[in-house]
Amino acid sequence: MRRWxxxxxxxxGTGGAWAQSPETLESVRLHRSDARxxxxxxxxxxxxxxxxxxxxxxxxxxxxxxxxxxxxxARTLLTGATVAEPLQPYLAYYQGxxxxxxxxxxxxxxxxxxxxxxxxPALAPRVQARLGEALLAAxxxxxxxxxxxxxxxxxxxxxxxxxxxxxxLAVGNxxxxxxxxxxxxxxxxxxxxxxxxxxxxxxxKPPLKLTLAEYLQRSRGLLDAGEAKRALEELEKAEAQKxxxxxxxxxxxxxxxxxxxxxxxxxxxxxxxxxxxxxxxxSVAAEAAxxxxxxxxxxDDNLKARELMAAVEKGWPKEGVADDAGFYVGWxxxxxxxxxxxxxxxxAFDQRHARSRKRDEAMxxxxxxxxxxxxxxxxxxxxxxxxxxxxxxxxxxxxxxxSARGHELEGSPAAVTGPAYEAVISSAPNSYYALLAxxxxxxxxxxxxxxxxEAPKQLERAEVPPELKLAMALTEAGLFRDAAEEVQxxxxxxxxxxxxxxxxxxxxxxxxxxxxxxxxARHLWGRAFGARLPEALAAFYPRAFANAVESEATRYKVSPxxxxxxxxxxxxxxxxxxxxxxxxxxxxxxxxxxxxIAKQLAEPAPAPAELxxxxxxxxxxxxxxxxxxxxxxxxxxxxxAYNAGPEATVRWVKEKGSxxxxxxxxxxxxxxxxGYVKQVLADLYLYQSFYGKDAAPQRLSLTVPAxxxxxxxx
Length: 714
Prior knowledge:
Number of helices: 38
Largest sheet: none
Mean pLDDT: 93
Distance between the termini: 40 Å
Shape: globular
């Protein structure tokens, strides 16, 4: 691999400005594999022309080399580079990174110290943290203490707390050391530093002993991290130290043990532990009984689950779990098609749980049970009560739609149902129910009113807010991650809608679609969906990563609008997002699905970290979406399969595919998938109406098609 020794000494320009090529910046933004090579070529061309931008290009090339683990080249590229003032703290920061990973923490500390005075509020915490770490590694623990005090207070991560503990010990702050080590052990039990922290605590004189509550905290944390065996070990330690004495203690331990045993597949032992937990105090017994009921629910034993939920509600009426259990009783009746029982159950729920946070949802499901019984008058009474009682509920648009639909199913004339559907579109123009109302109006021979008079419009010539000038410089340099952090810091200080509008459009021009969307969602909702300003809509519905989306959509013969609709719901246009289920990137692709897609495309399986690449993520998401459309032939079913999997979607169509689409979607058993399908459909048809070239509006079929027997199944 070519080295760049001495290359960056030639920094005097002989002509106009020279910068990275657009191809390089696009490749860096999309995390493509050729980004580093393109940056290297840009640097070589710049140096050959003696252009003034060599330092800035070297900064990008150095950070790319650093990201790929080529510390030697990064160090060579960054050493001696010169950049304009706004980028100088970043150059010093990355010089420090290169020095540190090259094994020279003392030189790294010097570089980090050079970055600190002019670091922006977004960069300063990182600089402080790395300065403290470098000083500590260089054997200067006392000097590290001050930097780590600030850094760990700002970001109390396991790493910084552990390092601060070492620095505190060096300056004689034994109490502070103990507090930090204990925080690591309790807050981050699955982190590698946690065991080391515990070992240090046990080596103290006198050694620190954990309480039962602290062992339970560690056990629950390990269970949440998927380490059930280690969770059981924590409980065994507590018992070995004779901390589990009282009946209440035994019940609490038994409940956590049961959860861990189920996670390790030891069902019989888990049930024995649950029996012990149910003999404990009221709060623990109620939680154990509810856990048992939820287990039955997850195994699709709905009759057993209903029986157990009813017992929880009756047996522990004053405990918090009684609220959820009572709701599930009605919901299980509805799912089983026992609509009369569902009406009774939800009516009883409303009476017994008058302060429940689920009352609006319970009203909605009671109305749905009435609709399935073709009792449209009673359904409207419940829906009207829902709207009057909870006017700010997210369920109001569907209550209004189904009230209008009930009128139509009852035989009311278009003069009655038409205005009711139009009111849905007027009051919730961006909703799934506005889309349904539009289709119902067309069936009545009435042209629906335009949900939005104008398509989104980006302000191309608006002045960049002064607060975003540094983010702009970082973006122009190709330091997109740093630009995103700078944007995050600045957007948290927005105070009014005018400022938000200027920020949103500057962010769109920067390609920071996720941050633009976040600013709009926080500050511009009324302007977009109340006043319906096209400038506000632009941040809610951007054509993010347009080149990649349109290219992959064309390649795999799927609508780019569908890709954007999925992307909007999955990640809100943020490439760095990861879910609790390890879904990654813009289209939230999980590693097993990525491996299966790579196999179908005859490509090497990607490493999980590669899925954060917008380019690869969009490619895999577009391919997968195209295959789902081939199998399911309807965007509602393809969206359901994208969220819940093809097998679940096939099962739902077999069970309830004879229903019209609006009822079918309402009876999808997974709450998350119901909401997902609704939002994706609404966004798909809005994207089509905003950016589609067809004069006639795209129609939503209200008939559920049968899926193909063959096709994608993962």
